[in-house]
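Re: that chain you flagged

S.,

Sorry for the slow reply, it's been a week of failed gels. I finally had a moment to sit down with the sequence you sent. For the record, here it is as I used it:
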Amino acid sequence: MNLKHEFSVAYHALTAMIMAAVLMAACNGGSGGGGGVGTPNQSTSRKGPGTLIQIPPAALPANVMPIVIDAGPVAGISEINIAYVSVTVCTPGTSGSMAACQTIDHVMLDTGSSGLRLLNSALYSNLILPPVTSSSGAIGECMAFAIGTTWGSVLTADIYLGGEVAKSVPIQIIGDQPGGATAIPGDCSATGAIQNTQALLGANGILGVGLFVNDCDICSLLPVVPTMYYMCTATGCTGSTVSTAQVVKNPVAFLAQDNNGVLVNLPAVPPGGAINPQADGSLIFGIGTQPNNALGSATVYPTDASGNFSTTYNRTSMTSYIDSGSNALFFNDSIAKCTVTTWAYCPSATMNLSAINTAASGGNTGTVNFSLVNADNLGTNVVAASIGGSYGPTGRFGWGLPFFFGRPVFTAIQGVPPPTGVPAGPFWAY
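Prediction finished late last night. Pasting the structure tokens below so you have them in one place:
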């Protein structure tokens, strides 16, 4: 069982990191450039040519995708608390019998980031996805997550989610070198270990369906945001601004109808954990757009502009967020740490705890009851369990995947007009 930190840097943390870097660059007169010698080529090759498929028949209802929690894509490595979906990508603009598509399984579902990111090694070499370019070169992206960094080209794809499609959306291809570059920019590698294989990522990609349309709203502005977007040629990559149209985007926002957010439905997990294979939940697109995604009695928790609300735990108020890409509940406490899984908590018996969530603006508030089990005592075939771990920065609380077990959770996207009767995002609701 691979008990590693799997939590993403949610938009709130990413924004803070970006703004701090921008201010530093501005104060130092720097351009945020990412050129230089760079690190050795860590690109990964695609699979050989494979059998491409036509657009798959739409499931009914069309706004639903299955979620599976299982051991992951790598034989001999058992992941825990990773929600997977299968995503179909096609050459943009093709349709009918002319469509050239590939379905990629074991793509991590992440409500803590925005945008589709796929391993280059998971794609067939004959799948044509055109690069996003400008007059200065091809565009590459460096995206920091808590366990490491994804580096790769920005390409365009038609993305099929369930029976719906987001057309011509920029995505990141992890491990693909943009513009003929032969090295990863050194400042990108310095942000964390490059996650460019199944074993490192624990998945074939990441589907970011978070609170925001773009993965970087300020990357079109000067000064250049360091270690984010680059213009690349065969001579190397240089940090650059990009247009809003060129950044990696949350594909849900580009669906024709069910585009204002998602509902994640996962089953409850027993105290001792769930064994492999653990199925099966649903990712439902839209909020209040169809009978199967109505808010109903869910309490709405609006976030601030960075995707935060607040959690009070042990009488301490903390900045918090909800993130299906985290494989544990992350917060700081004096609970005994594990011996083997040193970042995780290992109570001697199941602990029943509670915290209070409050909307960013005050307003709605509610108690969350949750439990923690001993991470070191889980069986090797357990793929889902209510585990927790310490959070590096103080004053933060991360509601990871265990929060979703047995609790339908809505994620509403900022800037996408909602249907009548549904509040505008960004908000969480459950």
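What I noticed first: Residues 265-429 form a domain with the Cathepsin D, subunit A; domain 1 fold (CATH 2.40.70).

Talk soon,
D.
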